[in-house]
Design goal:
The protein is 27% helix and 32% strand. It is of the alpha+beta class and 133 residues long.
């Protein structure tokens, strides 16, 4: 299995993401967007950090069920209801990412949205992974 994180110098040093990720010889797993839903389908967590932790945990649970692990993530998109709140808690969110997913960052994007499917949801995390076939 070969996953290569590509960060060309002319694009500047990334922080919390990779500019590009290339794979070869793996099975691609498409991970549905996950919010802070618990097992009873209720949104849990009072703030963006708590909801991000639950949403990322849910994404990683789906990835594990597909035979993968956090290092297999090649692309992640984070949908954010309140970008200012998210940015204000960026260090805490980064610490959650490192604790749950490690320091190998996939290609990432953060997108501001007016709302998510569940009106109580503050963040949704979606991704792709390259899992050993």
């Amino acid at each position: 299995m070969a996953i290569e994180r590509i960060n060309p110098e002319e694009l500047g040093r990334p922080s919390g993401f990779s500019h590009a990720v290339s794979t070869s010889g793996e099975r691609i797993v498409f991970l549905a967007g996950q919010t802070a839903l618990d097992s009873t389908n209720k949104i849990v967590g009072d703030g963006v950090v708590e909801q991000f932790e639950r949403a990322l945990g849910n994404l990683l649970a789906a990835l594990r069920a597909a035979g993968g692990e956090p290092a297999d993530l090649v692309s992640v998109t984070i949908y954010i209801v309140d970008m200012n709140d998210y940015k204000a808690h960026a260090r805490e969110i980064g610490a959650v990412w490192k604790r749950l997913a490690g320091a190998d960052y996939p290609a990432m994007a953060g997108i501001g949205v007016s709302r998510l499917w569940d009106v109580e949801a503050l963040v949704e995390v979606q991704g792709f992974a390259a899992v050993k076939a």
